[in-house]
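Task card 7
Instruction: Convert sequence to structure tokens.
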Amino acid sequence: MMLNRWLIPLLLCFGSICYGQNTAKKIPLTEVIVSIEKQFNIKFSYAVEDVAAIVITKPNTSFTLQETIDYLNSKTLLNFKALDNRYVTVSVINKTISVCGIVLSDEKKIPLIGASVVVDNIAISSITNENGKFNLQNVPINATLTVSYLGFQSRQFSANELFSTQNNCKEIVLSTKNEELNQVLISVYLTPGLQKYLDGSTVLNTKKFGILPGLIEPDILQSIQALPGVESTNESIANINVRGGTNDQNLVIWDNIKMYHSGHFFGLISAYNPNLTNKVIVSKNGTSAEYSDGVSSTINMHTKDAVTNTFSGGGGINLISADAFLEIPITKKLELHISGRRSITDLFKSPTYTKYFERSFQDSDINADSDKNDTSSDFYFYDYTAKLLFDLNEKHQFRANIIGINNALDYSERLTVNSNETESKTSNLSQKNIGYGGNWKAQWNPKLSTNFVTYFSRYNIDATAYRVETDQRLTEANEVLETGAKLNTYYKTNDNLNFLFGYQFNETGMLNQTTVSNPFYSSTKKDVLLNHALFSEVEYNKNNTYLRVGLRLNYFQKFEKFLVEPRINIRQKLSNQFALKLEGEFKNQSTTQIVDFEDDFLGVEKRRWVLVTDKDIPIATSKQGSFGVEFNQNKLNIEVTSFYKIIDGITASNQGFYNSFQFNNANGSYTAKGLEFLANKTAHQYSVWISYTFSTNDYEFNTFTPSTFPNNVDIRHSVSLGFYYDIFKNLKISVGGIWRNGQPYTKPIEGNETVQNGNNTMVNYDSPNSENLDNFMRLDASLNYNFNLSQFIKASFTAGVINATNQDNVINRYYKVNPNDLNDAVQVDNKSLGLTPNISFRVNF
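Output:
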């Protein structure tokens, strides 16, 4: 009690003393001026409004007059100047101060070394040191400073914002630049990490990716199938159909390198590692004039592009593959990013692998012999990437990239020569795509910048197939070699108006080779095509209007042919909720795939790349227009878009017909038109969406009878719905389903199912694509849990299931002559994946 009686008054006394000391630290400047006038017998001349709101700590009374004036200059934004021994003027005109700051990146608050700091309209500038810090002396108080760094949004500050009386520097955080005029329109589109830009393109940010039904990781090419108008009629990312187009009509770019191969496990898994892929932009229409050679869509992948000076990485394993990635700082301006992934299927055959294998090889030579005891198969895949990042200074950036993708299949048959001797016959298939690229970004001044890109892409598929029944060895090869260079020049007139001028050159060579041992046959065909292009566009974004108009001029040197391609993309906001959008484009394509059922690669890969000849294989051209209405309020987004697309210059061999046109050569076109609808409601913890696509898609081949008939991917009605929910902070779930009409197929004429053609018996098909498969339906689900293994290591566990109800879906149907009865045709059905679970465990640091 005695202690409490004395302790409380002491604490109150100590608090009052501290309070008195704290409040006594700073007093109004007007009082300080009066005190100094008395101390030195001088007079201050000033405007009352300039000093009325300023408080400072009183200077030391031991200071001389000049020391006192210097002190006042250092502690205020006013200019104190002694005219003589009697008068001192106080003003805000011609005041200079010292400023400082620390420039950091927005992502991890990493210091940005070599950032540029410029005092506008004055020859004063600096760059940040190894700690991201800068100091500038004698800066006018009314000056404006611009802080910039290549790859980041510039920021401006007034000098007095960076002036500090406490000798501490202001932290300046720069945001990563994602195409300044191409702002994000919808930040959460279906699921976190999916965004929508003003130009209508959809962006997948893999780092911020939430979860989609059935997926255990942000599989790039699987994720985009959640968008309306994007289908895969056979569940394969190697066969993505955008608004009725074929897969080879999608331009796929990885860090400026054109890719000719997209999938592992023959299309069931994306071949692009998502861990270092930072952003994927998908454009269905209204594409920038910078891009061509994809008449259906453009899928543009970008890897991480900032030098962070932070060592980080991660790794993971699932029931199909294992992967790892690292971001390694070498110097303060040099960094290396590497990633690798390899299947574990040759070491451990999981239930997921079994489902994938059955799905991939159900219609191949391998699966046909799977019931034999003397056959075996070994399949594996891997991919790798590496990127070297070098920032010469704040104005010049250099990047070098490499990507490699490989699928390999070995199939062996053990034959009994006699009772004491056996012999192995082996077939193999190798599928590779390797790409090299580099680019140089330069910021010549605040308005002018350039980006020079060069790349080399090589695609190979090689197969050796041994046919036991004829003792015949068949070797096949398809090779694509492409070299490209592009120079983009950007001119920024102001914050609302950008111009782009560019030139692109491509040299593409293709080889197709077939060799047969018994009887001997050999065929080799090589083609080379050179393409030059000039392009220009203007991009305007102000208030409620977004406009991008471009023009691309293509010249094909071999054919001495010009193609002019206009592009337009307009979005006009009518109110806070409603907006109209109009998109249109002309595009061309000089490469295509043909489907060869006779000389396929072990029955697994039936497609091979060929170059156009401008005669039997013409340049494919597209004309597309779309018009839509958008509604956005309280995070409810509703979109309705109508589209009309004509693709001319397709070939019959490109479509993979299973009917009477299967072996015919002809050129034609297809017309796709329809309506896309999407409704998406997002909130802090959940996102729910439903999309519907109605479309009609018809071929026209003038030399065929009938000349007009439904497209192989004519899916009239397609509905998808999904639900994403954060159960807890670290636990997420996503459930969704797909329903669509079955794709068209052609059946034989009933009662007259085969017909004699010379010495061959063939299926006698009815009207092409006059029947439809049963409707396709699938329900998928995924669950994700994140947790910390330590202060620096984060982990996640994800489980997913595809086709949770084990729905029996037929995705393709064709007929072949019954070998036991030449008057009968046998129906062959290809099935989709059945119930397919997968789990994944990942760590990141």
